[in-house]
Predict the 3D structure of the following.
Amino acid sequence: MKKLSQFQKNMIAVVVAIIITVLAMVAVYTWSLHYNKADRQVSLSDGRFDGEKYAFSDFTVQIGPRGGDSGAWLKDPIYDEAGNEIHGASVGTIYEIILYNASDATITDWEMEVFVPEYMWLNNAWNGTMELRQTTTGEELVQELDLSEYTQKEIILDYYLDHTGPMIPMNEGDSFVYIPSQADNEMPLVPSEEDKDVKDKAIVGFIIYVPDQTLDYVAVFDEAVITYHMQKSVWDYPVFVFLLVVLSIYVVIFITLVVSQIRVNKLLRQQKHDAQIIEQSISTFINFIEAKDPHTKGHSERVARYSYLLAQKMGYSERECNRIRYVALMHDCGKISIPVSILQKKGKLTEEEYEVIKSHTTYGNQMLRDFSSIDGINTGALYHHERYDGKGYPAGISGEEIPMIARIIGVADSLDAMNSNRCYRPRLTKDVIIKELLDNKGKQFDATVVDYVIELINEGKIIIGEEVTETE
């Protein structure tokens, strides 16, 4: 049997390590799916009650009177059609159910069944959609009903109708199931630390009338069942991110081994293979970045293409144009060091989060400063957010102090941002983009570079509107 070479041994070891890492990532992903699909159910009796709310591992629940001037009122006695008094005066009270997400995951598909502690009437259209389970007629009646939109023919439950709407009698042990509305942002409920358009808590209102009680009477709802699901992205698992980093290292090692062997075996074709290797390595690294921030998919490629066209227009050699293209491809590589929670945040960034985002320039410089295969590759990463008037970052340099390659990439980067659809706005029109470029000549941008990029736009070499969305 032929003895394996050292190269073959190394390749086998790396491939085995990659396979094991991928299998581990698949296992974490499978666990994530299991976690998200698991049916969960708790009762109030399972929670810890502090006198105001029930606390569970995933959320807190509070059921009680809303309070305030409209918290409770007296209602006149109820009479039947013959004028006989059914019940004396009753006290009406607005109650609230507050379900607050106290976990680090998103709560979805939740429903809450509340059991009635004593005889009472459920009333008022403020309830929204509920599934009512009633036994006042001697048999169990179940109906899903929105008391704000109904006709008398639709109601199969036992009820009494007055000027406030249907009064639904409920015996002790009867229940209603509240069905949350996505339209009212009652579902899903995001973790409390996330600043998104959706909420971290749901507030459910309902009105009850208890007969023969005074204004200070409070019915105690201490029996309820909540069913729900929990949702976590696979990126929320640190072990998955760690495995991805490990996989990246093994892939780099794998590529390095392949590159070394190619250089040994094919010296006459070294230059061609070197170019291919650099291209593949950069593309692989860009894929890692875009996997972490999918909202900017294709951004680095477009910025590199615009930078290449600008360099050609400005008279640089083909070799220099290619170097500028490679530098532009890696201009945002520092974003791999930025937390996913900040990169993918849809809401407005805080000042602290914006400072973290800005640090991708220095991270990129640190990552690339020892990358000697491409001269100055760290320059684009470090200085592409500098402004010609000196108001940029991270160094705050101005004018000719900014390397030309960074001035080129800065214009290309801003052009792609304006020419891409974003979650908060559509792409800008050609006229608006050109106006923005002209308005910022000598301010944000080098005036010479702006003139060249406008020529490319007018010549049709850079097409405004060619990118449909920011995630394509």
About this structure: The chain has twelve helices and 17 strands.
